[in-house]
Automatic annotation (TrEMBL):
The lineage of its organism: Bacteria, Bacillati, Bacillota, Bacilli, Bacillales. Keywords: Magnesium, Metal-binding, Molybdenum, Molybdenum cofactor biosynthesis, Transferase. One of its GO terms (biological process) is Mo-molybdopterin cofactor biosynthetic process. Its cofactor is Mg(2+). Residues 186-324 form the MoaB/Mog domain. It is an enzyme of class 2 (transferase). Belongs to the MoeA family. InterPro entries: MoaB/Mog-like_dom_sf, MoaB/Mog_dom, MoeA-like, MoeA_C_domain_IV, MoeA_C_domain_IV_sf, MoeA_linker/N, MoeA_linker/N_sf. Pathway: Cofactor biosynthesis; molybdopterin biosynthesis. This is Molybdopterin molybdenumtransferase. One of its GO terms (cellular component) is cytosol. It catalyses: adenylyl-molybdopterin + molybdate = Mo-molybdopterin + AMP + H(+). One of its GO terms (molecular function) is molybdopterin molybdotransferase activity. It comes from Anoxybacillus flavithermus. Transmembrane segments: none annotated.
């Protein structure tokens, strides 16, 4: 008889063994989607010189003090600067430099007037700019440090690099980017009934879908999957695969063979390894048979063979462990509240994690089961972008009830399981 423990207790037992992985460097081109291994601080002010935000004229504001439509001022245009050129030397109050967006403000100038507000005038072979309004000192200047100041923290360690982070990295010259190594996750699918994906169906056999599903889940969480293929339901084959995986991977995930059937060898494998069992029954549906053990300081996750139970077990237990290895403080699934779209009246003493579809409608989050809700179901995984959490022991949930939902396709995460 197995004694179920609460989901939060199971997660805690696993996370006690979590640790931070190693760092490596990748080129900025390869950094997208990786977890940063260091805090990123501004190494210079940005912009690091005063710049013009417009195409126009750089001027001394005081020269326009009395400018108006009836008394325009004329300033001599002594040169032009584009993004590539810099104006050497100061300008005098009666002068202006034509300036393009992004170019450095010449010494002596303290404002920019947009080209649309001016007129060019040629007089005695010289070019002047005519200005019909007063321009304030500092007007239209992107100041040094306006965007980012040297030393300020911009991106925290553990952050998954998005296009915006890439822009910041490039701004500060990070050609090589410190990222966390992707944790290596071994995936072992147990089951003599399993066929390769390319094999034709035979009576009593099914294709090994869990290995591919898990591979994608590992990738989504930021890990590097190593698929050990399918393993026959014998003690020897299972033991051999697990011990091999323990040598090559940081995390070992098995699917199937974890229940109480005659051919469920995972419990025996844990025993033979002398592993410390963390749990072998969790008060949840699906995935109540989910097990975890530690051998040689390596955490072994024994996920259910039933596809939906396997999927949920990965997201609840393996994902936070993997995220912690990536140096992420927010390693847990983010929880939001949503309105239940339809009645869910099935009762169960265990907490249910229903594969669900979360949507945003009329300014509100709504959630509905993504399909059939049995643990051997594959189809409901297609639409699942979240897990609807329904606490056990209730008499069911009516449409319109506010419920908790865990986000599966979110990078932000949460600092704790709650
Ligand atoms: N007497 C009891 N029987 C069962 C219990 C129980 O408490 N007492 N628990 C049930 C629950 S709940 C689940 S979930 C399953 C878990 O079984 P296992 O984790 O041991 O998995 P298997 O027996 O190996 O397979 C279960 C099911 O899943 C299919 N499967 C397995 N691997 C794959 C794969 N890689 N891809 C696709 N499908 C896979 C397999 O063919 C079976 O149909 O036990 C219940 N029984
Ligand atoms: O608890 Mo089993 O693991 O899904 O139905
Ligand atoms: Mg079984």
């Amino acid at each position: 008889m197995r004694k179920p423990i609460k989901v939060e207790e199971a997660i805690e037992r696993v996370m006690k063994w979590s640790y931070e992985g190693e760092k490596e460097y990748v080129s900025i081109e390869e950094s997208f989607g990786r977890a940063l291994a260091e805090d990123i601080k501004a190494t210079t002010d940005v912009p690091w010189f005063d710049r013009s935000p417009y195409d126009g004229y750089a001027i001394c504001a005081a020269a326009t003090e009395n400018a108006s439509a009836s008394t325009p001022v004329l300033l001599e245009v002594v040169g032009t600067v584009g993004a590539e050129t810099v104006w050497e030397g100061p300008i005098e109050p009666h002068q202006a430099v034509k300036i393009m967006t992004g170019a450095a403000i010449p010494d002596g100038a303290n404002a920019v007037i947009m080209v649309e507000l001016t007129q060019e005038v040629i007089k005695d072979g010289k070019t002047f700019v005519q200005i019909k309004r007063r321009v304030a000192e500092g007007e239209n200047i992107s100041r040094i440090g306006e965007d980012m100041q040297e030393g300020c923290l911009l991106v925290e360690k553990g952050t998954v690099i998005n296009p915006g982070v890439v822009a910041v990295l490039a701004t500060f010259g990070y050609y090589r980017v410190p990222v966390m190594k992707r944790p290596k996750v071994a995936i072992i699918a147990t089951g003599s009934e399993l066929l390769e994906v390319y094999e034709p169906l035979e009576k009593g056999k099914i294709r090994n879908s869990n290995a591919y599903m898990l591979k994608a889940q590992v990738r989504r969480a930021g890990g590097e999957p190593i698929v050990y293929g399918k393993v026959k339901d014998t003690f020897e084959a299972t033991f051999e695969a697990v011990t091999k995986a323990m040598q090559e991977a940081d995390i070992v995930v098995t699917t199937g063979g974890v229940s109480v059937g005659d051919f469920d060898y995972i419990p025996n494998v844990y025993e033979k390894l002398g592993a410390q069992l963390l749990f072998n029954k969790v008060g949840m549906r699906p995935g109540s048979v989910t097990s975890a053990a530690v051998a040689d300081k390596k955490v072994l996750f024994g996920l259910s063979g039933n596809p939906s139970a396997c999927y949920v077990g990965f997201e609840l237990f393996v994902r936070p462990f993997l995220k912690a290895m990536l140096g992420q403080k927010n390693c847990y699934l983010k929880k939001v509240q949503a309105i239940l779209k339809e009645d869910f009246l099935k009762t169960n003493p265990f907490t249910r994690f229903v594969r669900a579809k979360l949507s945003y409608n009329d300014g509100m989050l709504h959630v509905e089961p993504a399909g059939k809700d049995k643990s051997n179901i594959v189809s409901s995984l297609v639409q699942a972008n979240s897990l609807l959490v329904l606490p056990g022991g209730s008499r069911g949930f009516k449409a319109g009830t506010k419920v908790d939902v865990l986000l599966l396709e979110d990078e932000e995460g949460a600092p704790k399981w709650s």
